[in-house]
Amino acid sequence: MNQSPDYKLLFCLITVAIVWGTTFFGIRIAVETIPPWFVTSIRQGIAALIVFMILLYKKEFVWIGWENFKQQLIPSILMIVIANGFTTIAEQTLPSGLTSILSALSPLVIFIGSIIFGLQQPSLKGFVGVIIGFLGVLFIFREGLGDILDPNYMKGILFIGMAILGWALGTIYSKKHVHKTTSIALNLFYQFMISTVIQLVLAFVFSENINVSLWSATSILAVIYLAVFGSVIAFFCYYYALKRVSAVQVSILSYFNTIIAVFLGWLLLNEVVTFDFIIATSLIITGVFITNYKKNRKPIDD
């Protein structure tokens, strides 16, 4: 018997692909005048406040207990403090194209990690799909690949590398424990609060010449957008999807981030969309289809 499509899951997957495709653009605007650790701490602080108000309105705010708190501490540090924070720092110096290329390594790292930690069986089809999608990203920015060797970018590349590893480990950990989650919103509140405190401390320690009067209205609006859409909405959808499909299937949506980023460049910055972009988009969609398509496929749960 054919099961009816899960439209809520589909909506969440599309939301993750589109919203996180815009965050590179938002971060770039935010760090123009606001130090990166303040961008991330304010972003997560606003997100925590929004989720807290929702929980109070629904009368669902409670203490989750120390055991669950420790479970939220790990993804908070890995996925928000390290992955989100280091990506924000990297975007101070790295070109957006190079950042997209390196960030697109995330699904491949998650694919390998999922096999190592027993979340997924080794699959030639899955590996081929991930590689084809990554080749699509490379095809878009192939003229800028030489930037990887630029010594001026080495610090940014190092931060992106740590961000990718943090995101991969956080996703794998979350997948192993997400089935235990009773309230995504409640757990997200604690994750956002933990990361806010840690990142705020880092902001005061590592930020030089803190002068709030220099923060532009455009950068502040970008931070608000990152908080509402990039954190609250996208993270909720991401965790919802993780409960229903494999970590690799969710992470590979990051390839669409590149498509969204290029589209925004065309829409807002009058950048030209070439035939190469159409070819690259076809490769990315093909890779996603190969990785996800299988009749009656059931993700491995622990």
Could you describe the 3D structure shown?
- The protein is an all-alpha fold and 302 residues long.
- It is 73% helix and 0% strand.
- The chain has 12 helices and no strands.
- The longest helix is centred in the C-terminal third of the chain and has 26 residues, at 217-242.
Helical element count? Answer: 12
Report the portion of residues in β strands.
Answer: under 5%
What are the segments in which pLDDT stays under 50 over at least 5 consecutive residues?
Answer: 296-302
Whole-angstrom Rg: 19 Å
Q: Report the order of strands and helices.
A: HHHHHHHHHHHH
Largest sheet: none
Task: Give the overall average pLDDT.
Answer: 81
Using the alpha-carbon principal axes, give the shape. Answer: globular
**Helix/strand/pairing category:** mainly alpha
User: How far is the first residue's CA from the last residue's CA?
Assistant: 26 Å
SS elements, strand count? 0
